[in-house]
From TrEMBL:
<feature type="domain" description="XdhC Rossmann">
    <location>
        <begin position="190"/>
        <end position="333"/>
    </location>
</feature>
<dbReference type="InterPro" id="IPR003777">
    <property type="entry name" value="XdhC_CoxI"/>
</dbReference>
<feature type="domain" description="XdhC- CoxI">
    <location>
        <begin position="12"/>
        <end position="78"/>
    </location>
</feature>
<dbReference type="Pfam" id="PF13478">
    <property type="entry name" value="XdhC_C"/>
</dbReference>
<dbReference type="InterPro" id="IPR027051">
    <property type="entry name" value="XdhC_Rossmann_dom"/>
</dbReference>
<dbReference type="Pfam" id="PF02625">
    <property type="entry name" value="XdhC_CoxI"/>
</dbReference>
<dbReference type="InterPro" id="IPR036291">
    <property type="entry name" value="NAD(P)-bd_dom_sf"/>
</dbReference>
<dbReference type="InterPro" id="IPR052698">
    <property type="entry name" value="MoCofactor_Util/Proc"/>
</dbReference>
<protein>
    <submittedName>
        <fullName>XdhC family protein</fullName>
    </submittedName>
</protein>
Amino acid sequence: MKRLVRHLCSTLADNRSCVLATVGSQSGSTPRIAGTKMIVHEGGSIFGTIGGGLVEATAIREAASCLLQKKSAHKRFDLSNSEAAVSDMICGGTMDLYLEYIAPSSENMAVFQQLEKELHAGRRVILVSSINGEQPRFFVDHKGRVNREDLPSAVASLCRQTAAILSGAACVDCEGEQYLLSSFATGGHLVLVGAGHVAACTAEAAARVGFQVTVMDDREEFANKERFPQATTIQLLSTFAGCLDGLDIDSDTYVVIVTRGHLHDMEVLEQTLQTRAGYIGMIGSRRKRNTIYTQLLDKGVTEAQLGQVRCPIGMAIEADTPEEIAVSIVGELIYQRATGRRAWHLA
């Protein structure tokens, strides 16, 4: 997503218009999920993909019309009908495609430059665009703040409410206007508390699929750049007490607890449960988990809080080695990232 926004900013800086194609609401089986984006330039060249085939070809054709007329458009696809069948696109679902005409104005440049800045900092942003193009674009940041003060209160309130539960894209109606809300999500911030063998493998795998990685440990021989070359930040701790203090932990933060001991795990888990982390995972057996949970319940932690924790951590793939365990953990992180705030349904 960062590369796409960077490319869009570069296009505007070159004084060129473009069309941002966004997969909106979708149901059933479709080529790409809601929120997937692609940029279409004059002449039909593209950056990114929304799945290829009929959908992408139609998007490129419709985008040419948008660029010519300097207007945005909305296209609905039924991928279960005869038109899809003859195009080898029998997905069996429906999807809405929004084509936003974006002119190289100073106002648009400011919005997308700020969007790039937020993404570079690892923060999720919801871009809000008027469907008919009559209202300026604005965005809702990761803390629910709207970056425009002149919006009608009803519009600002509805956008905040929708942004709080949005993981892809959605269209809302308010005061006679339609707005497209589109999530520009980062790869996510992975906080690895513990720097042992599993952490080293997990950091490598997570970085490869786009996570920013922070590693924490109280052992200098483990928490160092040689062992974690992919990490953005490495913190050498004097103690695990208060180790999360000062971190901006929100729903795009994934905390994985893999310390070297039961007591450290419990100490870190108790801290993590006081945060807004979107994912909390702790390594260990069910027996270890139950022991820690019992102790935390005695300290006032609730069953609902413990229900947020994935322990034993990782997808059930019979992982055994540190490398395999890392794959199972990162698979779970990818799933959480893709599904956002939707309920877990993995075994």
